[in-house]
Amino acid sequence: MVLKAVLFDFNGVIINDEPLHQRLLEQILIEENLRPKSEEFREVCLGRSDRVCLTELLARRGRVVTDEYLNNLIARKSRAYAEQLANLETLPSYAGLTDLIFQIRAAQLPMAVVSGAVRSEIELVLTRLELAPYFSIIVAGDDIRVSKPDPTGYLLAVERLNQRDPGLNLKPSECLAIEDTPAGIQAAKAAGMQVVGVANSYPFHMMQRQANWAVDYLSDLEFERVRQVFAGEKPLVKSVEG
């Protein structure tokens, strides 16, 4: 077996924007005359789509809304997100991201984003970071109604990569996923993929227990060693801790 594709989560892996999402979600609740609870973001929203997150936050407060109403809330939040990023001269991406993408490109492996984020947000950030040309496929929260830890997003990414390049004949077991949350790791593993857990949002020890590889930072990931493990040339090294 060889490594044929690398699939990235977005929030917490490509861009360090989780605090911004928390503020915007709390603002949505306030505008809906509901009281936010800071601890709920990590419990309900990290690693999950805005649709699933807002549905749960509203349900906890006795609110059940129509799909149209929920779509409007998501659109409001997405507009606010774009406005906030427009005020930033430099977007907060993660150290080691550019170098890792360079290594993947040098290996001539396709890349995709699999995220519960809204597509417009993903495209905005990738364009600002000058990474958009390198991601041939984006599976966003707009594309599916379920959220991680459901594996549907990852399986859809494999399907779309094969549609784009039928000769690739890609299988989930030939993909590496890069995630920062338990929900994301569970989704990728349920799809049949090996996973790097990067400790951007949760402690290293939590990533180490759940992922095939765990790293403190993307810059710690020895990509060539990962490729060798896929090829059966080296035993699996569970973690790299800085």
Automatic annotation (TrEMBL):
<dbReference type="Pfam" id="PF13419">
    <property type="entry name" value="HAD_2"/>
</dbReference>
<dbReference type="GO" id="GO:0003824">
    <property type="term" value="F:catalytic activity"/>
</dbReference>
<dbReference type="InterPro" id="IPR041492">
    <property type="entry name" value="HAD_2"/>
</dbReference>
<dbReference type="InterPro" id="IPR006439">
    <property type="entry name" value="HAD-SF_hydro_IA"/>
</dbReference>
<dbReference type="InterPro" id="IPR036412">
    <property type="entry name" value="HAD-like_sf"/>
</dbReference>
<keyword id="KW-0479">Metal-binding</keyword>
<dbReference type="InterPro" id="IPR051600">
    <property type="entry name" value="Beta-PGM-like"/>
</dbReference>
<keyword id="KW-0460">Magnesium</keyword>
<comment type="similarity">
    <text>Belongs to the HAD-like hydrolase superfamily. CbbY/CbbZ/Gph/YieH family.</text>
</comment>
<dbReference type="InterPro" id="IPR023198">
    <property type="entry name" value="PGP-like_dom2"/>
</dbReference>
<protein>
    <submittedName>
        <fullName>HAD family phosphatase</fullName>
    </submittedName>
</protein>
<dbReference type="GO" id="GO:0046872">
    <property type="term" value="F:metal ion binding"/>
</dbReference>
<dbReference type="InterPro" id="IPR023214">
    <property type="entry name" value="HAD_sf"/>
</dbReference>
